[in-house]
Amino acid sequence: MTVAALTSAALAGAGGGATALAQPSPKIVVKDGVTQPVFSYKDAIREHVYVESSVDSDRDGKKDRVNVDIIRPKETEHGLKVPVIMDESPYYDNAGRGNESERKTYDADGNPVKFPLFYDNYFVPRGYAFLAVDMVGTTRSDGCPVSGGPTDVLGGKAVVDWLNGRAKAYKPDGTPVKATWTTGRTGMIGKSYDGTLANGVAATGVKGLETIVPISAISSWYDYSRMNGVKYWTDEQPWLASYVDTDPPEKCAAVNADLDEGEDDATGNYNAYWKTADYRHGTIARASRVRASIFAAHGVNDLNVKDNQFAEWWTALAKHGVQRKVWLSQRGHVDPFDVRRDAWVDTLHRWFDHELQKIPNGIMREPRADIEIGPDQWITQRDWPSRDARDIVLRPGPDGTLGLKRAPHGTTATFTDAPGPRGGGYSEGAMVSDPTTAQPYRTAFVSSPLPRTGRLSGTPDARLRIKLDKPTSNLTALLVDYGEDTRVNYLGSGAGIRTLGTEDCHGESTPADDACYRQTEVTTVTSPVNVVARGWLDAQNARSLSHPRPLKPGRYYTVNWETLSQEYLLKKGHRLALVLAGTDADYNTETPTGAQVTLDLRGTSITLPVTAAEDDPTTMIAPPQRTTPWRGPTDVTLPVQQRNLY
Question: 302, 338, 417, 513: which is the annotated catalytic residue?
Answer without folding.
Answer: 302
